[in-house]
């Protein structure tokens, strides 16, 4: 049996927004199955297949942009914490950080 998952779970697994999934459904990139109530459900096997294709065909290079609004925020360490959180996020998702803009 092919497991169906919710749109929020598919969004989490793919690392894209729910809005993106809806666009992909409309474009035919990743078709959703509708419940009787009209909710979108995705086949887990389709998600896994798309992840394999994405990992094979794309470089996952990213640029990080960090900023604070005031000198006080910078002095209290907000900028460094923000930078570290973004680096951790990229590392968890196996993105290659090309450059950090501060």
Automatic annotation (TrEMBL):
Keyword terms of this UniProt record: DNA integration, DNA recombination, DNA-binding
A single GO BP: DNA integration
Domain Resolvase/invertase-type recombinase catalytic residues, every copy: 61-102
CDD domains: HTH_MerR-trunc
Active site (UniProt): 69 (o-(5'-phospho-dna)-serine intermediate)
Highest taxon of the lineage: Bacteria
UniProt GO MF annotations: DNA binding; DNA strand exchange activity
UniProt-listed SMART domains: HTH_MERR
HTH merR-type domain sequence ranges: 4-53
SUPFAM superfamilies noted in UniProt: Putative DNA-binding domain (SSF46955), Resolvase-like (SSF53041)
Protein name: DNA binding domain-containing protein, excisionase family
Organism annotation: Tepidibacter formicigenes DSM 15518
């Amino acid at each position: 049996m092919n497991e169906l998952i919710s749109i929020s779970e598919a969004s989490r697994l793919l690392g894209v927004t729910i809005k993106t999934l809806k666009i992909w459904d409309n474009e035919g990139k990743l078709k959703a199955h509708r419940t009787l109530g009209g909710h979108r459900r995705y086949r887990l096997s389709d998600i896994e297949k798309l992840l394999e294709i994405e990992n094979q065909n794309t470089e996952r290079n990213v640029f990080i942009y960090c900023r604070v609004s005031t000198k006080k925020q910078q002095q209290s360490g907000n900028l460094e914490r923000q930078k570290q959180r973004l680096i951790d996020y990229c590392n968890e998702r196996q993105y290659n950080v090309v450059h950090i803009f501060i």
